[in-house]
Amino acid sequence: MRNPIITLAYACMFFFLAGQSVQAAYDAQFVRCVIPETLTTDEIFPAVICMRNTGDTAWPITNILMYSQYPSNNYTWGTYFILQHHGDSIAPGDTFNFTSNLRAPSTPGTWAFAWQCYNRTASQLFGEIVPAESIHVKQRLEMPPPPPAHRDSLLDSSDFEYIGSFKLPAVTGYDNTFVPSGLALRTMPDGSKRFFLNTGTYTQCLYEVELPQLEKIEGSDYSALTTAALVKQWTTIAWDTAVSGENITSNGGFWWDDSTNILYWTHYNSYYGGNGFPMLAATRLANDTVTNLKYWYLPLPRLATWKAYWRGVTRIPKTFADAYTGGRELALGFGGVYSLCQTASSGPAIAAIQKPDMIQDTVDMVEMLRYIYPEAAVRNGNYFQANSTIWLYQPPSPWDGRFTDKSGCAAGVFIDLPDKKGYVAFVKHNTGRIGYDWGGSVVDPHYEDNWYFYDLKELGEAALGNRALGSVQPSSFNKINWPYPVSATESSHTIAGACFDPQTRIMYVYCNFALGTRPAVHAYYVKIDSSASSETGLPGKTGPMLTVSPNPFNPKTKIAISGQPAGGKTALIEIYNVHGTLVQKLPAASCPLSAGVTWDASGLPSGVYMLQVKINGCLLVRRVSLIK
């Protein structure tokens, strides 16, 4: 009988020799490297690294990468690897050029350029290291362009104030850890607010919640957030049978019509390769009854495969609809996502439609915004494209770029207030490296959230046919810093649904992965223009001005009016919560109010309130924050 110790020794020697043979089978010799001698900071540049297969085994090129060295896997040149992804095997003795666009460091200096072959199957580096050639990086001289000048009547990021968030409840039988969802606002007869949302990983369920008290997130601590009360767990909103080979389910955005109890919802599938399917549908929700009414296609055949308008539906303000879209008060969008089968839009997209006719099969559509490549929406230059992508474009500077095939937009809202107007599109951008070097998916991704603001007048001109759709560029776009830390590699953290309440001037956005692995709804208040005399007045006109000081306050503050109209005798002062519910009414105050009256909010909880003062036929509005 063989000695077990000797047997173990033989076995160890076998595996050692086997490992040595695998290592010897893959070997590489450096041939040449074609790179610039000098660059400017953040400059995009092409690089070629030629390697010869000096082993005794052919390289399956889809399995061989170049990994950065000194130190290993560093991001000095914008990525730590170069992968060709497609190509023939490289026989022993043959050479191969690893090519890629790379990005210079953001800091000037002399930087080593060193790479080594890597076998993905064996998880091993092998062969010669590219000699530590160096590239001298000079400081970029041009300065970033100034931000667009703020215009009082045109929305930009400075007009929004984060006022709080709330958690979402668990829904029995469904997992809501990472589900993107639309967000629809419902106003009840008593003025209270509710929301429709979806949850569920594969099979989704529509549910309805009440708007709770808003609380602000403090850093990574969201324990104080209120969980919205679950009002109703509905069901999966879907069509009973497949249509045009597609199972039509509510997986995009949706909008609720208070007047008819109808939920308009959308379905999309970026991989769908047919000639179009119905992407808009209507379902009536009444008591416990769910009734599917109708589904509609985009206009055929012109837009049958055009995926710019597959992501959701939102409401168009009536004043805008009457002026520009022939009264069409719904909009389909939101574009900005690439499909392997048909392109969508290389930027946000939106089109106005009539409330669909139950007799017709297609929607009556007027396009307002879309970009057909090579047209593209602008963006920052914080990325570089690999060699082979669908929307190939290398940003000329860190501040100038264009939408890429990995930029997406899943939600948008129209805001048309007396003092503030604009369309907001919520965009997620890839940053850094975009895509493989020869097609495929992003495997080295970084992300940032941007809000894009569009001028309603320019959208209206495009809707009327007086302006080319792709020529409409955002009036401004800004990277959004969330009120809590967000990892740059968190791909699923994005705004999937949004809605706006003009009564309270509050915009609500749904973010999955907002609270670790859980979604949340964030609320942003549209600040009243300081030059606007009243909610119903025009910016720049003289008139009564309402002031509240201090604001925020606890528990008392002083309400005063300057420049009040002549002849006013009394002022009616009412306080509403974020639900639109009247919570306190002060005794009628004698005019003038220049000296101010005191509001004691001792009996109210902390939160955001809307203060309304009616005086001599004039309505004055201010947002106030009670912090106890």
UniProtKB/TrEMBL annotation:
Keywords: Signal. Residues 1-24 form the signal peptide. The keyword Ion transport does not apply. InterPro entries: Ig-like_fold, Nbr1_FW, Secre_tail. Residues 44-130 form the Nbr1 FW domain. It holds the Pfam family N_BRCA1_IG. It comes from the Bacteria. This is Nbr1 FW domain-containing protein. It comes from Candidatus Raymondbacteria bacterium RIFOXYD12_FULL_49_13.
